[in-house]
């Protein structure tokens, strides 16, 4: 039986990701189209606790589909992990008769939503929004494609300098525990090597790969280092390599937070729109404690418990192999 849902709130939480605005727009407009009163929560779970909840109409989400960041703002909120914080958040939703909460974020955000819904009578749906692509249940998360495009644009520029000066560049990219951005960026930019948190690569191995390129007259080399790599960040690794292999002038670039901003790619705008539309429709059909995600080219629903308990290895095997073969 379809539940009688009248009021739905939406929030963004954790790291912002390009495509979140396209998704907020889809959530708000799909809800309004179906006769639901829509609310936006400012600053993620912090806004639930601070009672920062605003009504939204179709025009509240005009002209945002192309914008990076999130018009609802986001936050990392420790207080929501406490019983007291959750109780205040629930009372603020109850005061407005809000029966459904749609959260756009990563694994931390989903854990919060799952715990909240286990404790209180609130329906929740999750939408995977993180540049890290580290969630089970969606082949791509919102923002991942744009972040890769941003990274390769930067690497293309660095390559000009690397090549002009016979330099070895170590470029550190984001992905807290995930090598997804690093691997795709490496393939798309034609990097000589990539270091991933999911794979052990010794300094000896890396040095022999670089030395072999130098011996076949490579004028420059680019190594992508994922920030989550166990052997340390790009500066550490560059220092260790230089001690053994001093053929090139060595430079380090940390791309940092520029990777999270910017106008979303068409892929992320469409993905955000599809996921937002699906999340509201699923909620209106009675689905709760689930996430919507892209699998193949279809939008599918996965239970949040399942999504959180299954840590999928998301690095494509052919891409892993290719990074060695195509960089000879
Ligand atoms: N165990 C938890 N219980 C309640 N809320 C949580 C829990 N884990 C994370 N959260 C909430 O989700 C927010 C976002 O999580 P975080 O890991 O920072 O980002 P992401 O959702 O992108 O992975 C946290 O700041 C916190 O408010
Ligand atoms: O902006 P902050 O708080 O320094 O967080 C940086 C982290 O956020 C991310 O960009 C995205 O992580 P989440 O999507 O899990 O929030 C990571 O790649 C990075 O390690
Ligand atoms: Mg996360």
From TrEMBL:
Briefly describe activity regulation: Allosterically activated by ADP and other diphosphonucleosides, and allosterically inhibited by phosphoenolpyruvate.
Q: Which SUPFAM superfamilies match?
A: Phosphofructokinase
Q: Which residues does the record give as substrate binding sites?
A: 130-132, 167, 174-176, 227, 251, 257-260
Pinpoint the Phosphofructokinase domain residues: 7-281
Q: Where in the cell is it found?
A: Cytoplasm
- List, from the UniProt record, the residues annotated as the active site of this protein: 132 (proton acceptor)
Extract one GO molecular function annotation from the record: 6-phosphofructokinase activity
Gene Ontology, cellular component aspect = 6-phosphofructokinase complex
The UniProt record gives the binding positions of ATP as: 15, 76-77, 106-109
Gene Ontology BP terms: canonical glycolysis; fructose 1,6-bisphosphate metabolic process; fructose 6-phosphate metabolic process
Q: How does it assemble?
A: Homotetramer.
What's this protein's name?
ATP-dependent 6-phosphofructokinase
Tell me which species this is from. Answer: Pedobacter nutrimenti
Gene that produces this protein? pfkA
